[in-house]
């Protein structure tokens, strides 16, 4: 079978993503974000995100077609995120994808957003098999060559913190653990706010932490005590960490002391990074899987990439980090997963699926 | 010939023709399953009417007012279908379609002709469910010689007990609480607006409500 030309549609949160791939080759990755509109609320407002998707959809689609240099008629299939994510936001992409598929008489694949993040790793730039470099990024280069299985995947964003065991991208994905309260990206936003830093918190904390001492304050590592590890070996919790930072800041302010923002930011970030990687590498060790894939917007955090690189090197684990434009939410990863499903001979999804805000990772395609 | 979609109440899809009328209409009343059913309803309408996508002249869509999550599904579908088919989108106020159907039916029963016609000076107040104990409403002074409704107030959003205060001359209106907006009416109204060179609705969805959110007042204390 020749490599299928697939359009991917992603609207699960605040990014309207339209991507086009041919097999494992990336042709276009257009992202329209409503992030700025959420800034004054300190977090993503679902209704604002959904309204923005409706406005951004058609311009993003037109831009992606132009970037890829293909026409709608040439497409072999359309893939769309059906969950997990914000219901109202997902519905915009689903409705548009269904109508587009019918008007063009193309097969439609409804796929899992989190598995899409893993699927991003299969993408290569149009020239040779070099890693994708359509957008400049300061990331350590992902290992070239195809993704090998099984692999552990750590997906960290403002909406998710999930640890997956991927035995096969299109047929066998298992959830090892996930956050039991806040997502890691959400913790960055909340701590930034209590330090008086703007939204989104990730880059702000990163900036503030420069020059700070990551060991100045020993903030708690959630679900890392022996009693917690029994039940929550691969689960995460960031709510207690956020509260610990708040207590620390309030104590200093009440005592009339200066709040050392760089030290607090660096120590908080260290606690997040440490617990994320400790659990991910524990999974690699426990399950004998010497491969770790990172995905999600929090991968933009320089300290996370640095510590991941160091610890994986120490433990002989192959680390894969797709370029940042494919780590944050995007349509190309959805197209990539759709393309792999087609190549594996999967039939299209029916027309009756809806938005599934809590879609499990075991459901790779509807 | 138009594919028409309205999701301001339930989900309704139709194929209509200016000369031949309603060729197919499929609807689901459930107000919580718009995204699930929209694709199947479109497919069924195209199949039942034996209309090929290429032969459509455009896509008509009801822009509300309607509860936002569902309303958006129809608009997103209409826009995407039109983009894929390379056809224009024509937009109407969903309440106008309800009023149009009412005036056409009134004219038909008065004259015995099914196609409507003849001006109607009966004031009509159309309301639909907005949830949260509120109604969307639009007020019409009557219809012109083509049964096209003349909207004089609205669309607006009000608690039912506030309507007599905000609708000017409330007592003079015949009130029509619609629990349904038919895509066929949306399509037929769009055909008539086009034929008589009247303006369509704007591209903004008629949500009539701001997103439920208030700006953060800053972090709360966690210690006493």
Automatic annotation (TrEMBL), chain A:
Q: Where in the cell is it found?
A: Cytoplasm
Q: Where is the Gcp-like domain?
A: 26-134, 145-335
Reading the lineage from the top rank, the first entry is: Bacteria
First-tier enzyme category under EC: transferase
Which prosthetic group or cofactor does it need? Answer: Fe(2+)
What PANTHER family does the database record attribute to this sequence? Answer: TRNA N6-ADENOSINE THREONYLCARBAMOYLTRANSFERASE, TRNA N6-ADENOSINE THREONYLCARBAMOYLTRANSFERASE, MITOCHONDRIAL
Catalytic activity, EC: 2.3.1.234
Q: Which reaction does it catalyse?
A: L-threonylcarbamoyladenylate + adenosine(37) in tRNA = N(6)-L-threonylcarbamoyladenosine(37) in tRNA + AMP + H(+)
Q: Which HAMAP family match?
A: TsaD
**Taxonomic source organism:** Terrimesophilobacter mesophilus
Entry's Gene Ontology cellular component terms: cytoplasm
Protein name stated in the entry: tRNA N6-adenosine threonylcarbamoyltransferase
Cofactor info, note text: Binds 1 Fe(2+) ion per subunit.
Give a GO molecular function annotation for the protein: tRNA N(6)-L-threonylcarbamoyladenine synthase activity
Question: What InterPro entries does the record point to?
Answer: ATPase_NBD, Gcp-like_dom, KAE1/TsaD, Peptidase_M22_CS, TsaD
Q: What does this protein do?
A: Required for the formation of a threonylcarbamoyl group on adenosine at position 37 (t(6)A37) in tRNAs that read codons beginning with adenine. Is involved in the transfer of the threonylcarbamoyl moiety of threonylcarbamoyl-AMP (TC-AMP) to the N6 group of A37, together with TsaE and TsaB. TsaD likely plays a direct catalytic role in this reaction.
The GO biological-process annotations, alphabetized, read as: tRNA threonylcarbamoyladenosine modification
Q: Which residues bind substrate?
A: 155-159, 189, 202, 206, 301
In which family does this protein belong, per the annotation?
Belongs to the KAE1 / TsaD family.
Key words of the record: Acyltransferase, Cytoplasm, Iron, Metal-binding, Transferase, tRNA processing
**What residues bind Fe cation, as annotated?**
113, 117, 329
Q: Which Pfam families match?
A: TsaD
Automatic annotation (TrEMBL), chain B:
Q: Which UniProt keywords apply?
A: Transferase
Q: Which GO terms describe its biological process?
A: tRNA threonylcarbamoyladenosine modification
Its signal peptide is: none
Q: Name one GO molecular function term.
A: transferase activity
Pfam families given for it? TsaD
> What Gene Ontology cellular-component terms does the record carry?
cytosol
Locate the Gcp-like domain: which residues?
31-140
- Is the keyword NAD assigned to this protein? no
* Superkingdom, natural source: Bacteria
* InterPro entries named among the record's database cross-references: ATPase_NBD (IPR043129), Gcp-like_dom (IPR000905), T6A_TsaB (IPR022496)
The UniProt entry, under PANTHER family, shows: TRNA N6-ADENOSINE THREONYLCARBAMOYLTRANSFERASE, TRNA THREONYLCARBAMOYLADENOSINE BIOSYNTHESIS PROTEIN TSAB
Per its record, how is this protein called by name?
A: tRNA (Adenosine(37)-N6)-threonylcarbamoyltransferase complex dimerization subunit type 1 TsaB
Organism in which the protein naturally occurs: Terrimesophilobacter mesophilus
């Amino acid at each position: 079978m020749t490599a299928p030309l697939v359009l991917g549609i992603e609207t699960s949160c605040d990014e309207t993503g339209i991507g086009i791939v041919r097999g494992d080759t990336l042709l276009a990755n257009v992202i329209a974000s409503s992030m700025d509109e959420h800034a004054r609320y300190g977090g993503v407002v679902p209704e604002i995100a959904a309204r923005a998707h409706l406005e951004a959809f058609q311009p993003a689609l037109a831009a992606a077609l132009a970037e890829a240099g293909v026409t709608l008629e040439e497409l072999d299939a359309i893939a769309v995120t059906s969950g997990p994510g914000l219901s109202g936001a997902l519905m915009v992409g689903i409705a548009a994808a269904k109508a587009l598929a019918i008007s063009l008489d193309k097969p439609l694949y409804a796929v899992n957003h989190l598995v899409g993040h893993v699927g991003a790793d299969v993408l290569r730039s149009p020239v040779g098999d070099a890693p994708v470099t359509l957008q400049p990024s300061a990331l350590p280069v992902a290992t070239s060559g195809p993704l090998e299985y099984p692999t552990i995947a750590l997906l960290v964003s403002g909406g998710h913190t999930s640890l997956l065991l991927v035995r096969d991208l299109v047929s066998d994905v298992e959830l090892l653990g996930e956050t039991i309260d806040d997502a890691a990206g959400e913790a960055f936003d909340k701590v930034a706010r209590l330090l008086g830093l703007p939204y989104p918190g990730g880059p702000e904390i990163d900036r503030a932490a420069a020059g700070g001492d990551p060991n100045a304050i020993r903030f708690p590592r959630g679900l890392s005590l022996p009693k917690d590890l029994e039940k929550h070996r691969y689960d995460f919790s960031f709510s207690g960490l956020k509260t610990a930072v708040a207590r620390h800041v309030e104590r200093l302010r009440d005592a009339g002391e200066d709040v050392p923002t760089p030290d607090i930011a660096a120590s908080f970030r260290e606690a997040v990074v440490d617990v994320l990687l400790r659990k991910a590498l524990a999974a690699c060790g426990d399950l004998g899987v010497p491969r770790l894939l990172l995905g999600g917007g929090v991968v933009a955090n320089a300290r996370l990439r640095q510590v991941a690189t160091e610890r994986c090197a120490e433990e002989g684990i192959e680390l894969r980090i797709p370029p940042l434009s494919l780590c944050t939410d995007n349509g190309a990863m959805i197209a990539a997963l759709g393309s792999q499903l087609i190549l594996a001979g999967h039939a299209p999804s029916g027309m009756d699926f809806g938005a599934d805000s809590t879609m499990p990772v075991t459901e790779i395609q509807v | 010939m138009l594919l028409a979609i309205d999701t301001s109440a339930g989900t309704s899809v139709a194929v209509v023709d200016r000369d031949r009328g309603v060729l197919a209409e499929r609807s689901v009343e459930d107000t919580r399953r718009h995204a699930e059913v929209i694709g199947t309803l479109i497919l069924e309408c195209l199949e039942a009417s034996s209309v090929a996508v290429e032969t459509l002249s455009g896509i008509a869509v009801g822009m509300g007012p309607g509860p936002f999550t569902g309303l958006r599904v129809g608009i997103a579908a209409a826009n995407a279908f039109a983009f894929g088919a390379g056809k224009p989108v024509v937009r109407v106020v969903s309440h106008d379609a309800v009023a149009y159907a009412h005036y056409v039916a009134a004219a038909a029963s008065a004259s015995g002709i099914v196609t409507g016609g003849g001006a109607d000076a009966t004031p009509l107040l159309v309301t639909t469910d907005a949830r949260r104990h509120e109604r969307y409403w639009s007020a019409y002074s009557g219809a012109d010689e083509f049964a096209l409704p003349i909207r004089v107030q609205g669309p607006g959003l009000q608690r039912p007990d506030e309507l007599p205060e905000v609708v000017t001359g409330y007592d003079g209106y015949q009130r029509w609480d619609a629990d349904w907006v038919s895509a066929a009416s949306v399509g037929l109204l769009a055909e008539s607006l086009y034929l008589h060179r009247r303006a369509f609705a704007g591209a903004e969805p008629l949500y009539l409500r701001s997103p439920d959110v208030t700006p953060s007042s800053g972090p709360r204390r966690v210690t006493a």
